[in-house]
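@channel sequence for tomorrow's demo:
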Amino acid sequence: MLIFLSLIGLILSVIFLYFNARRFASSLYLGAFFFLMSLYGLTQYSILYSKSAFLITIFFMNPAFLYYLPGPLLFWYIRSIITDNSRLSKRDFWHLIPLLIYLLAELPYLFSSYAFKSDIAKAIVVDSAFLRELKTTVLSEWFGNSLLYLSRPVLVLIYTLWSVIIYIRYLTQKKHPPRFSKQSFMIKWLFILLFFQSLLIISHLVLIFRTFVLDSLNLFYTINTLQILSSIGLIGLLISPFFFPAILYGLPRLPKHSLKKYSAMGVSEDSGSDEKKNIPINLETEYLLMIWRKAEDFMMEHSPFLLPDLNLIKFSELIQIPAHHLAYFFREVRKQSFNDYRNACRVNHAKQLMMEGKAGGLTLEAIGLLSGFSSRITFFRAFKKTESITPSAFLEKINEKPA
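structure tokens (generated this afternoon):
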């Protein structure tokens, strides 16, 4: 079963990363987490159950340093969902220190010959107890194999508990930020993800402790409570995304009923326009409508586009809409990037200034700066992209008109 679940997990993670990593950075963390957890399962199967010298040669020790990464990946994913900020800071790279230490320690083994690794694999096939005695890194000499085998799941457990604390803190806040507005499924998804992950890692950690510390290696080869709990955790972890397909989009799903009118968008239900066809039926259309209205109203009333540093993150803070929701809205509904939308507003403002005669006392560069552009080049480039003519040509057209 372990080999089957691991392969399913690898396929799921690859598909997940292929379709979503470029859309949401948080999906990169989750996809990489699933991939490494599945690869870890495949490694365990190869070493403990396969009795294949070839598979053991490939998977024993070679990817071991990577298994210090699932913990940070899970933590970064949970944090990015809770805070609606998937960016990593410089401090986050401290989480990679255990990985780097182990990688440096196992470099001699990584660069050893295939024949040497194959001999070790054959010895493991003959007697799996050889795993407890084998010293493959400097760290093995200093700390012993038992501590090293425990270090990876212990680290994952620490990060899992850390993620649980972040999740509970969010739930116990008296006033929730609007990150999960109209998407209560995210609360359930994070709970299920953390539950199965906790079940998997705790049972697996106890199993490793009893096996390599208490000298009960046969536990891995017999059906026992720990094996069953570990399997339940892994199965739940791998199949849970199929019950929450909306995590691929970051927006709640819409029950299958007829679409409401898009009067606020200027699209009626029977218009048959392309714009209506682009509205995804499986998402909260009312929520998308609310994003549309709020973005347009705020832009018109408060003119935040005049701020030179306005970007998607800052705009999301201003209108209290999660950034990944805005990103989805502009990409899938408006079919326009936020930068193009913001620049179009700036260009309209610049056109208004020119039509009001402000160009007589100001240079075009000054008009661009007053409209929110950071430089003359960006102003001219955005104007040409939006209006298909330069600001100078537009100004000439205005001056040609009779008074």
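heads up for whoever presents: The radius of gyration is 28 Å.
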